[in-house]
Design a protein that fits this description.
It is a single chain. This protein is of the alpha/beta class. It has two domains: 3-191, NAD(P)-binding Rossmann-like Domain (Rossmann fold); 200-432, 3-Layer(aba) Sandwich (Rossmann fold), CATH 3.40.50. 42% of the residues lie in helices and 15% in strands. The chain contains 17 helices and 16 strands. The strands form three sheets. Strands 3-2-1-4-7-8-9-10 form an eight-stranded mixed sheet, sandwiched between helices. A hairpin with a 2-residue loop joins strand 5 (89-90) and strand 6 (93-94). Bound molecules: nicotinamide-adenine-dinucleotide.
C-alpha cells in the first residue's frame, strides 16, 4: 500500500494528512509536538475545520492514519513525504530552520524512488537551491534516485477540506520526472493540477498572497479616505466593482493570519535592494495600521458621546483573525485589545471560536460581554455577530455605541435601534 508521511501536523499538515488518508492512502503523520501526535492517534481533532473531526476519526479508526514523532522511521517506510512545517519571516528574512530540520530527517530516511514534496511557503529558489543540495548530500540524485517538488498550499482556514479537494493546485518539480511523480500523487485527491517548475511554483504562491495584501491595503486606503470624505467605502467599493475589470477587496480592522502578514516580505526578499519593493512594504504598513486606526475611531466615538477612553468599559467582539475560525495568529484583535488596555479602558473580549483574549477579560456569552458596556468594537466577522439582536444588547449596554471594523452590522439597523454607529470606512455617521 502506498504510504505517505506528512511532516508537520498543523493547520496545513493535519487536513492534508486526513484528506490523503480519506482517499485510501496509508498516512503517517509526523510532528515534534508529542501532544499533537497523541491527539491524532486517539482520533482527536485539535483544529476547528468543518468536517475534519469526523473524517479524522474515520481514517484513524480504519487504520489509515497514525502519527509519530519519529520522522526518520516514517520516511524510511514511505513512498512519499509531504513537508508542512512553519516558515516564519523574521526581520524580513525567511527562517528556514524548521524546514532544514525536516529535510535532515528526510535525508536520513531517504531511499530510492522516494517523492519529497514541500508544501510550506518558501522563498523562490528554495526547493532547487536549498532542499535539493541538502538531500543530495546523501549521495543520491534528484530526478534519478529520488524526486523533489514544491506544491504550495492554498487552503483558507475554515474551508481546508473542501479546498484541498477542489482548489486548483500548482505542482512544480525540480525536473520533469519529479513533476510527473507529484502529479501522480496529487491527482488522487485533486483533479485540478497545474504543472510548472519548482521555482515558478514558489513564486506563484508568494505572488498570490502579496496581490491579496496589496489589494486589501488599497481598500483600506480608500476606507480612510472615505471617512474623511463622509462617504461609505463599502458602498463605493460595491459600485466600483460593478466595472467588469475592477475587483477591489474588502477593507477592515486589519489583516492577520500566518500568510498575508509574512508572504509579502518573502517575495521582496528576492531583491531587497529594488526600490519598487516599497510598494509592498507600504501596503504592509497600511494593513498593519488598521487596528490602530480602529482604536482611533473608538476614541472619537467616545469623545462624541462625551465619554473618556480611560476607564471606559469596551467589549471587543472577536479574537480570531478571520470569521468562522478560531485561529488567532497575527490577529488585529491583539493590537486593538492591547492598545485599548494601554489607554486605560476595561476591555472584555468574546469570541465563540477561541478562548484567546490577548489580556482582556474573557466573557463566555455575548450578553455577558456587552452588559454595562460603553461601546462594542467588532473586530472579527464571525457569522454569530451578523445576527446580533440589537434590541436585546441595546437594553443591557450602558451606552449604545458600535464601532464596526468589519461591516457586520447594517449601519441603518444600528441607528434605527438607537445606536451611535461608527465603522472602518464609514463616513456617514451624521447623515443617517
Ligand atoms: N495556515 C494556513 O492557512 C497556510 C496556508 C497556506 C500555506 N501555509 C504555509 O504552510 C506552512 C505550515 O503552516 P501551518 O499554518 O500549518 O503551521 P502550524 O504552525 O500550524 O503547523 C506546523 C507544524 O509543524 C510542526 N513542526 C515544526 N517543526 C517540525 C519538524 N522539524 N518536524 C515535524 N514537525 C515539525 C509544528 O509542531 C506544528 O505542528 C507554512 O509554511 C505556512 O506559511 C499555511
Amino acid at each position: 500500500m502506498f504510504t505517505i508521511s506528512v511532516i508537520g501536523l498543523g493547520y496545513v499538515g493535519l487536513p492534508t494528512a486526513v484528506v490523503f488518508a480519506s482517499k485510501g492512502f496509508n498516512v503517517v503523520g509526523v510532528d515534534v509536538d508529542a501532544g499533537k501526535v497523541e491527539a491524532v492517534n486517539s482520533g482527536r481533532c485539535y483544529i476547528r475545520e468543518p468536517g475534519l473531526d469526523v473524517l479524522l476519526r474515520d481514517v484513524v479508526s480504519k487504520g489509515l492514519l497514525r502519527a509519530t514523532t519519529d520522522a526518520v522511521r516514517a520516511v524510511r517506510e514511505s513512498d512519499a513525504v509531504v513537508i508542512a512545517v512553519p516558515t516564519p519571516v523574521r526581520d524580513g528574512v525567511a527562517d528556514l530552520s524548521y524546514l532544514r530540520e525536516a529535510l535532515l530527517a528526510v535525508r536520513e530516511g531517504l531511499h530510492r524512488g522516494l517523492l519529497v514534496v514541500i508544501e510550506s511557503t518558501i522563498p523562490p529558489g528554495t526547493t532547487a537551491g536549498f532542499a535539493k543540495p541538502l538531500l543530495e548530500e546523501s549521495g543520491m540524485r534528484a530526478e534519478e534516485d529520488f524526486y523533489l517538488a514544491h506544491v504550495p498550499e492554498r487552503i483558507a482556514p475554515g474551508r481546508a477540506v473542501e479546498e484541498l479537494l477542489n482548489m486548483p493546485r500548482v505542482v512544480g518539480g525540480v525536473g520533469p520526472r519529479s513533476t510527473e511523480k507529484a502529479v501522480e500523487l496529487y491527482s488522487r485527491v485533486n483533479s485540478k493540477l497545474l504543472t510548472t517548475d519548482a521555482t515558478t511554483a514558489e513564486f506563484v504562491k508568494l505572488a498570490e498572497n502579496t496581490y491579496r495584501d496589496l489589494n486589501i491595503a488599497y481598500a483600506n486606503l480608500l476606507a480612510v479616505m472615505a471617512e474623511k470624505l463622509g462617504v461609505d467605502v463599502y458602498e463605493a467599493i460595491r459600485l466600483a466593482n460593478t466595472h467588469q475589470r475592477v475587483h477591489i477587496h474588502i477593507p477592515g480592522a486589519g489583516v492577520g493570519g500566518p500568510c498575508l502578514t509574512k508572504d509579502p516580505y518573502m517575495l521582496i526578499s528576492i531583491d531587497p535592494d529594488f526600490w519598487g519593493s516599497e510598494l509592498i512594504k507600504i501596503a504592509r504598513r497600511i494593513n498593519d495600521y488598521m487596528p490602530i486606526h480602529t482604536v482611533k475611531i473608538v476614541e472619537k466615538a467616545l469623545i462624541e458621546a462625551e465619554l473618556e477612553i480611560k476607564n471606559a468599559r469596551i467589549t471587543v467582539l472577536g479574537a480570531a483573525y478571520k470569521g468562522g475560525v478560531g485561529d488567532t495568529r497575527e490577529s488585529p484583535s491583539k493590537h486593538i485589545v492591547e492598545e485599548l488596555i494601554k489607554k486605560g479602558s476595561k476591555v472584555i473580549a468574546y469570541d465563540p471560536y477561541t478562548s484567546e483574549t490577548f489580556g482582556a477579560e474573557r466573557s463566555l456569552s455575548l450578553e455577558d460581554a456587552v452588559k454595562d458596556s460603553d461601546a462594542i468594537v467588532i473586530v472579527t466577522d464571525h457569522p454569530e455577530f451578523k445576527n446580533i439582536d440589537l434590541e436585546v444588547i441595546g437594553r443591557i449596554m450602558r451606552h449604545k455605541i458600535i464601532i464596526d471594523g468589519r461591516r457586520v452590522i447594517e449601519p441603518y439597523q444600528a441607528v434605527k435601534h438607537g445606536f451611535r454607529y461608527y465603522g472602518v470606512g464609514f463616513g456617514k455617521a451624521y447623515k443617517l
